[in-house]
Write a structure and sequence with these properties.
heterotetramer; A alpha/beta (277); B alpha+beta (338); C alpha/beta (328); D alpha/beta (144); A: 277 residues; alpha/beta; Elongation Factor Tu (Ef-tu), domain 3; Rossmann fold; 7-stranded mixed β-sheet; 6-stranded antiparallel β-sheet; 15 strands; 21% helix; D: 144 residues; 4-stranded parallel β-sheet; 4 helices; 4 strands; globular
Chain lengths: 277, 338, 328, 144
């Protein structure tokens, strides 16, 4: 039977590695049954992962497009699908389809710019693919600053990679912070928005901001104080999705569908949408 | 243009139904018109329109999408799609014909929805011009001419005959096979004029979309009237499910005990769980959900679709809403053209 | 035609609102046409005087709205209750679903409400005006005029009205009615007298019309769960659309079962069903059975009565005896 | 061609304290009852929600039987009295919808009534077998 390809029908993916990153976040490595990367993607794009009988959900692809061998997903345990994934072992099959959404404009707007990444908690997951992409093509960008905060040291996602790779990169400055004092932590303590203000960045940067709504709100206020305009700030949204192709209607906010017109938005674009995200 | 006499219509149906399925509006035992597969003895309804919209033909309320076989850690994905069979729907009104165009703008844009596309490809729409519109009709508001109903073949009914005209290649092919007698257009034109006169007298004839359309999001979204309009909304899905253009769906899995079926079914933005996800819900109150439905039809959809509104004025929600709240009341209140 | 005039209710509402007894009024609001009345919350005198209606189309039962509205209201809410509505009102009180102190209930007499669908069946399409009076006068855009007896086009539930007695109110307008000898179980008995095959065919055809819009559930004053089993993915019976005939039956059996013994037979489910499924016949079956098996019981007749399914006697009928003497 | 003999699938909800023990006793005493009776142990017959009964049919049962302690003997004092009312109404409703009344049954079986358990199951299975496959409450998706 000849029929056009159906976007809703996923392919099988195999979990080849599970890494416990923080007490409630695991990073899963996924390839096709024949060991290849399921599809190419751009930084900031997402994929629909599902466990038949449990559900399907959208996750940002945390590995960089420059990784041609596999994809990684950092997933926080918080609902049916994620709970199930957290008890999955290596070798477990899942289904995968994608890539979905508009990526970060890494080759256009970001090109040649100084980049400032600001993330809180699990929100590093969508930014990690961008960070690793721009690190890979460092000559195409200016200075890279990364401010990342979490509740505690244990809650810092991809801590090893940050310490062993990002921190050692030339031209990359990493600023870590945790919410409360903790033994064996000699870094900064405090919330991300305050830390950003303390660090007092120059406004010659493009900001990529992602985190819980409350963090975004206060960080944005801080950035505005420092002189940043909304046109300089990008973020990525998360809403309930079922089809991921702009048809099922649930991630519709204003005239946009987060799954296909987003998830990456510039803040001034968000201003034109009703506050329903 | 071709014609057949009123008495001949069932012979024509028999010809169409020879080889493919033909659906016509027929009265059920409660006297409501429903699309029914035609067979000898099924009588064409005289009702203005069917209780449910014909969107089911292309976008059924429930359909299985795929099947999974799970064994231990392994998963097998089975494509269970079957090629649609050719079918013909007779008696679709202009408003509903237009609704297919709206659905096309969702399902037939990249990436194509193959389930919908396949049915659309295999379906032939025979429309029927209206002769006795009712007080809840407001298709003219959206620029729809119920006397020129479109579709693959358009049909006009006069007192003694049915007049047929093909609009598409698909329609021409089918019409040619029916071998009807050729005729002039006078009778049809006369009928059209008569109907047009009634249309101008309809109570909702003055309803306009002037206050709506793309670019009006911020202006209309924060209007305080949404609260009073939605005050008594039950949060049921009646309006959504009788609506010919509502197309939101849910995708769910069902474990049959011998495999897992992933199906999709109609969903309603009026339901409290529509946007509920693990970390919260971005539309917590009925006001927000109610507003979403109308904003989508009247602002968001036209913004993305060259000004085409997501409503066709069929009037079903006016007739069916349990609390009689509907798009007309919303348009009059929010649009202020009372 | 209703015995009391809208103006009496408007006057009552305005005076209670103005003297501060209540902070808002639940009432019927004028629609686009003469028959599409919307339940609404009125907070100003002007709004009440301009838009409050009470005529033969005011079928909506406000009891369920009290569950949500009393939670938010600053003061008392004025609610107008027809005799059948008062049963729902009491039943909700029995189940502690709202705070009685926050409601000012005014009982109003009702002569039965009419069904626009039945009127339309007579007048045809294009109703331009409907005047409720001694007779219902319908004009159409096709310049036709019909005079219809209200008694010929009553809502099903009003045709078989069970009671004109108000079982709850703070104030009653008009005269008190009484519990009526109702023929409401006749249809159920008729179905019971059919053969199983006929019954199966009947329900199969009725329930297959269902579009699962949930209007019956959402309007039902007895369905007040914060989360319905059919919406709860963890319940194991969640479903959003009727996948097949089984699920249609499942939904309707369980919906009726969940209100069995609590359903006051207010008839809202059948009134709002867009597909005209006679849902009351399911509810009434349970009521009839309960009456037969465990003695007459009218949900909502008094506050605090113990629902039959939350009760038992040691000598109850055995499930195996249910069909004794019931023919085939 | 060999015609497979039709054997009905029976789901029996048995209360933990009486009927399940009764089923056990039937087994210990080597009393025969059909192998197609699938026993589901519940803490009390009262645990059986009407959706359980319907779901059993959906999943392919041809008959559903509930077994609990004799009235008055409930481990939880009154659970089975509620079951009795609930199932009387549910079964009456199923009958009202045209579903064969022989497909559902409630039987009180004590821990000492192994013989009654076996006899009940045999009788029930026979009655259900006479009706044939459950067609009126089936979910085709669940059929193999």
């Amino acid at each position: 039977m000849s029929m056009i390809k159906e976007p809703l029908i996923p392919t099988v993916g195999v979990i080849t590695d599970v890494r416990l990153d923080t007490p409630d976040i695991k990073t899963f490595r996924v390839v096709t049954p024949d060991g290849k990367k399921a599809f190419d993607h751009r930084p900031g794009q997402c994929a629909m992962l599902s466990i038949p009988g449990v559900g399907e959900a959208m996750f940002s692809i945390t590995s960089s497009p420059t990784n041609t061998e596999y994809m990684e997903f950092s997933i926080k345990k918080c609902g049916c699908v994620t709970d199930w994934l957290h008890q999955a072992e290596v070798g477990q099959n899942i289904t995968i389809r994608g890539p979905y959404g508009k990526p970060f404009p890494v080759d256009t707007e970001f090109a040649g710019k100084n980049l400032l990444f600001i993330a809180g908690g699990v929100a590093l997951a969508p930014l990690r693919s961008v960070i690793n992409y721009v690190r890979h093509y460092k000559d195409r960008y200016g200075k890279i600053d990364i401010v990342y905060g979490a509740r505690s040291k244990e809650d810092l996602l991809q801590y090893r990679e940050i310490i062993e790779e990002w921190c050692k990169d030339e031209g990359v400055n990493v600023y870590l912070t945790i919410d409360r004092e903790q033994p064996e932590w000699d870094g900064h303590v405090g919330f991300v928005p305050n830390y950003v203000k303390e660090l007092g960045f120059d406004t010659d940067k493009t900001v990529i901001l992602c985190g819980p709504p409350i963090m975004i709100k206060f960080t944005l206020a801080g950035l505005t104080e420092l002189g940043f305009s909304k046109e300089q700030v990008y973020t990525t949204l998360e809403l309930k999705m079922k089809c991921a192709i702009g048809k099922c209607g649930r991630c519709n906010v204003g005239s946009k569908y987060v799954c296909k017109d987003g998830p990456v938005f510039r803040l001034d674009e968000l201003d034109e949408l009703p506050n329903e995200y | 243009m071709f014609k057949c006499s009123v008495n001949e219509i069932y012979n024509v149906f028999a010809k169409i139904a020879d080889g493919k399925k033909l659906y016509v509006p027929a009265d059920n035992k409660d006297g409501n018109a429903v699309y029914t597969e035609w067979a000898e003895g099924v009588e064409l309804s005289n009702a203005l329109n069917t209780a449910k919209s014909p969107k089911d033909f292309f976008f059924p309320q429930f359909e299985n999408l795929m099947e999974f076989k799970v064994e231990g850690k392994s998963i097998e994905v089975n494509d269970i799609r079957e090629a649609s069979e050719d079918f013909v729907v007779f008696g679709v009104r202009a408003c509903d014909v237009k609704s297919f165009e709206i659905l096309d703008r969702v399902f037939l844009v990249e990436p194509f929805d193959s389930y919908y596309a396949s049915r659309r490809e295999h379906g032939v729409i025979i429309s029927m011009a209206c002769t006795r519109p009712t007080e809840t009709c407001f298709c003219t508001t959206f620029g729809i001419d119920c006397t020129n109903p479109g579709g693959d073949i358009a049909v006009w009914k006069t007192e003694d005959a049915y007049y047929w005209q093909a609009n598409t290649e698909k329609g021409e092919k089918l019409l040619a096979a029916l071998e009807l007698e050729g005729c002039g257009e006078d009778a049809v034109n006369e009928q059209k004029e008569k109907t047009a006169k009634v249309m101008s007298k309809l109570p909702l004839a003055g309803l306009t979309t002037d206050s709506f359309g793309g670019g009006k999001t911020m202006e209309l979204f924060n209007r305080p009237e949404w609260k009073t309009l939605s005050e008594s909304c039950l949060g049921c899905g009646t309006c959504t499910f009788v609506c010919p253009t509502c197309q939101c769906y849910d995708v769910k899995d069902y474990n049959t005990g011998n495999g897992i079926l992933r199906f999709r079914c109609w969903d309603s933005c009026m339901y409290s769980d529509f946007t509920k996800m693990a970390h919260g819900n971005n539309r917590l109150s009925q006001v927000e959900r109610f507003r979403q439905r109308f904003m989508h039809k009247l602002v968001y959809f036209p913004e993305n679709n060259e000004g085409i509104f997501g409503c066709v004025g069929c009037g079903r929600c006016l007739a069916k809403c349990p609390i009689s709240m509907n798009i007309v009341k919303v348009m009059k209140t929010i649009g202020g053209n009372d | 035609m209703q015995k009391i005039n809208r103006n009496v209710l408007v006057e009552k509402a305005v005076s209670l609102l103005e003297n501060g007894t209540v902070c808002c009024v639940l009432g019927w609001k004028k629609g686009e046409f003469d028959y599409d009345i919307t339940p609404a919350v009125f907070t100003t005198k002007e709004d009440i005087e301009a838009n409050f209606v009470f005529d033969d189309f005011c079928g909506a039962n406000f009891s369920k709205y009290l569950v949500q509205k009393t939670r938010k209201a600053e003061g008392k809410i004025l609610v107008f209750l027809k005799s059948c509505d008062t049963y729902s009102f009491n039943q909700l009180l029995t189940e502690h679903r709202f705070d009685r102190e926050k409601v000012y209930a005014v009982g109003i007499p009702c002569e039965g409400m009419v069904d626009i669908n039945k009127i339309r069946a007579i007048s045809g399409e294009g109703i331009s005006s409907v005047e409720c009076g001694e007779k219902i006068t319908v004009n159409t855009i096709y310049d036709e005029k019909f005079e219809i007896n209200a008694s010929d086009v009553l809502l099903e539930r009003c045709e078989s009205c069970k009671s004109k007695l108000h079982v709850a109110y703070d104030e009653l307008i008009g005269e008190e009615g009484e519990v009526l000898e109702s023929n409401r179980f006749d249809e159920v008995a008729k179905l019971e007298a059919m053969t199983p095959d006929e019954r199966f065919a009947f329900w199969q055809s009725e329930l297959s019309k269902c579009i699962r819009c949930n209007a019956c559930r959402d309007v039902c004053p007895a369905c007040t769960c914060e989360k319905c089993v059919f919406d709860n993915p963890k319940s194991g019976v969640e479903n959003k659309a009727p996948a097949n005939e089984f699920e249609e039956k499942m939904f309707h059996i369980i919906r009726a079962f969940h209100v069995a013994g609590r359903c006051t037979d207010c008839g809202e489910c059948s009134r709002v069903c867009p597909q005209h499924i006679p849902l009351h016949l399911l509810n009434r079956k349970f009521i009839k059975d309960i009456n037969e098996f465990y003695g007459d019981y009218q949900a909502g007749a008094e506050v605090g009565s113990r629902a039959p399914l939350a009760n038992y006697t040691t000598g109850d009928i055995e499930p195996s005896e249910v069909f004794d003497g019931r023919g085939e | 061609m060999q015609v497979k003999e039709y054997k009905p699938l029976i789901v029996a909800f048995c209360c933990n304290w009486c009927s399940y023990a009764g089923a056990d006793l039937a087994g210990n005493n080597r009393l025969n009852y059909p192998a197609d009776v699938k026993i589901i142990r519940v803490p009390c017959s009262c645990r059986v929600n009407p959706t359980f009964v319907l779901r059993a049919f959906q999943r392919g049962a041809d008959g559903v039987i509930l077994c609990g302690c004799h009235p008055g003997d409930c481990h939880y004092t009154s659970g089975n009295y509620y079951t009795r009312r609930r199932m009387a109404l549910l079964f009456s409703m199923l009958d009202y919808l045209g579903i064969e009344r022989e497909r559902t049954r409630v039987e009180w079986v004590s821990a000492a009534e192994g013989a009654k358990f076996a006899a009940t199951m045999n009788d029930f299975a026979e009655k259900v077998a006479a009706l044939g496959e459950n067609k009126r409450l089936e979910d085709l998706r669940c059929k193999k």
